[in-house]
Amino acid sequence: MTIKKYSLGELQANCYFLIEDQDCLIIDPADDASFILEEIQRQQLNLVGMLATHGHFDHIGAVGEIQLSFNVPLYIFKKDRFLIDRLNETAKHFLGYDPHFIKPITVKYLTVTNFRISKFEFRILSSPGHTPGSGCFYFSEENVLFTGDTLFKEAVGRTDLSYSSKEDLTKSLKKIFKLPRETIIYSGHGEDTILEDEKIYFN
Questions:
Q1: What's the rounded Cα separation, in Å, for the pair 88 and 102?
Q2: How far apart are alpha carbons 136 and 49 in whole angstroms?
């Protein structure tokens, strides 16, 4: 499996293309649909699905426009549905203008632990704290974890939002730290890291 990272949008959210035999699974489509659609076409990829680590606009703003071209669902935890419903209102609050995102058209909710989309098999870890419906995706064969805004290099997601929970985030981090220490962490913003290195800061 090939992993390609693109930092997109005003908030530079990390969008990941997971590619296997030209099948492509996107994790956190960010908010730059034009770039993503151009890359899919340029690389001649077959988009099979989109995963969201959580529902903030900088991670899912492009979904609706992408779905106008590709009939693929967005997979997300249901507890973040309220963020999808208020997508443009939240974006306007943080950006200072209304970006007029097209809201996701087809949404499916994550309810199981082990999941498969086309050629991609992975484990889903519910990781509330930053948002109620935050989640991480662990690919055991590659030993990589996509954490969204739950865990960054030398930092964790903010919990000062009205719907955030520092207590829940602490519990989520404990769950993450049970994974193999050499697990590569691909976060929602910034650089990649290794789980062992982050234990120094958050154990």
A1: 9
A2: 16
Decide: 73 and 50 in contact? Cβ < 8 Å. yes
Q: What is the DSSP secondary structure assignment for residue 80, as one 8-state letter?
A: G
Q: If you average pLDDT over residues 163-181, what whole number do you get? A: 95
* Mean pLDDT of the chain, nearest integer: 95
Q: Which domain holds residue 46?
A: 2-202
pLDDT band at 203 (very low <50, low <70, confident <90, very high): low
Tokens of 169: 């985030």
Q: In the chain, how many domains are there? A: 1
Coil/strand/helix, residue 57: helix
Phi-psi group of 165: left, alpha or beta (phi > 0 → left; psi -120 to 50 → alpha; rest → beta): beta
d(CA 45, CA 202): 38
CATH classification at residue 98: 3.60.15.10
